[in-house]
Write a structure and sequence with these properties.
Elements: H1 2-18, E1 30-35, H2 41-56, E2 60-65, H3 70-82, E3 87-90, H4 99-107, E4 112-115, E5 129-132, H5 135-150, E6 158-164, H6 170-183, E7 189-196, H7 201-215, E8 221-224, H8 227-239, E9 249-254, H9 257-264, E10 270-273, H10 279-290, E11 298-300, E12 305-307, H11 311-314
Parallel strand pairs: 1-2, 1-3, 3-4, 4-5, 5-11, 6-7, 6-8, 8-9, 9-10
Antiparallel strand pairs: 10-12
Helix pairs in contact: 2-10, 3-4, 5-6, 7-8
The structure holds alpha-L-arabinofuranose (AHR).
Alpha-L-arabinofuranose binds near residues 117, 171 and 228.
Length: about 325
């Protein structure tokens, strides 16, 4: 109880010491947002959510697309500091390498909010809060679905190929970790190939082609860290004369409309949800932080799992 009170107090102090003079003036809030890029259907939906929420709330959004390059994000953050924005938010391409630029933001008294992806920094006070998904849990959910789905199969070994996300990114590291954690105790589930597909359709297809060339019909399962790579890989599987969803079980993460369409076509077996709709919460957080209100240190999005069996029922409700 005491430690909970202490955590709340610390969060309040963090928010208060970052409170900018804008909280006392009538001018519109200015947020600098550095986005990863436009690599996936998920990312496009995330950008739309953030831009729409800012517009709706009358917040000035300075938006920079990093084209999946950390150096572009560092440049964007420095430019936001120079422009004296009220708050900086960003979705970091990779986990490490942020200490210097975040120290610069702190020295300039500009609060930083992490959206979607986490960072690895030596000083946790370099950002105020994180808003996004629990990627390790997403990996576990994918693993649990597979364990259940394959429990009754007669195969002595089930060969899995894995398409990882961007090297060094939080979702790639965590989704791998969560999945491995769950399948570790199962002697028949074996990952035979694992390589990055950089979260894109084109790369997902290319790497799956290489997997198929090397392993052919030995492959029983594809685990893709996002829907776009799975969709690219599905194409590769079909071009190799195999049936995705049947000859090779396909598991992916995000829950975008493209994945639901693939499930409706019988080509994808399950998608684990990862919500990109972070815009409204981000705007609320920004207002609270700039006003000096206490905010939680981490806000985790609530998400589900959608197997192909529920795709037809769920599809009309999907918002991205
Ligand atoms: O960080 C979230 C991940 O990044 C999504 O799963 C993926 O589609 C995106 O590119």
């Amino acid at each position: 109880m005491q430690s909970k009170r202490r955590t709340l107090l610390a969060a309040a102090c963090l928010a208060a010491c970052f409170a900018s003079p804008a909280s006392f003036a009538a001018k519109p809030l200015v947020i600098g947002f550095s986005q990863v890029g436009a690599e996936s259907e998920w990312r496009t939906a995330n950008t739309v959510s953030i831009k729409d929420a800012a517009k709706k709330d009358g917040i000035t959004l300075k938006f920079a697309d990093a084209q999946q390059k950390q150096e572009n994000q560092v440049k964007a953050i420095r430019s936001f500091i120079a422009q004296r924005v009220d708050l900086i938010a960003f979705s970091p391409v990779v986990e490490s390498g942020w200490d210097t630029v975040l120290r610069e933001a702190k020295a300039a008294k500009i609060p930083v909010v992490l959206t979607d992806r986490a960072v690895n920094v030596s000083d946790p006070s370099l950002y105020v809060t994180f808003i996004g998904s629990d990627f390790v849990e997403e990996g576990r959910r994918a693993g649990r679905w597979l364990v259940e789905r394959t429990a009754k199969l007669p195969n002595p070994v089930i060969n899995i190929v894995e398409l990882q996300g961007t090297v060094g990114s939080a979702p790639a590291l965590d989704r791998k970790k969560g999945f491995e954690e769950v399948i570790a105790g199962n002697p028949k589930l074996k990952v035979i190939r694992s390589q990055t597909g950089d979260f894109t359709r084109a790369k997902g297809k290319e790497v799956m082609e290489a997997f198929l060339k090397a392993e052919g019909k030995k492959i029983n399962v594809l685990y893709a860290h996002n829907d776009d790579m799975a969709i690219g890989a599905i194409q590769a599987i079909e071009e190799a004369g195999l049936k995705p969803g049947k000859d090779i079980l396909v598991i992916s993460i995000d829950g975008v409309k493209g994945a639901f369409e693939a499930m409706l076509a019988g080509k994808l077996n399950v998608t684990v949800e990862c919500s990109p709709l972070l815009g409204p919460q981000l705007m609320q957080l920004a207002r609270d932080i700039v006003a000096g209100k206490p905010v939680p240190r981490r806000i985790t999005t609530v998400e589900g799992v959608f197997p192909a069996e529920v795709a037809a029922k769920e599809f009309p409700n999907r918002k991205y």
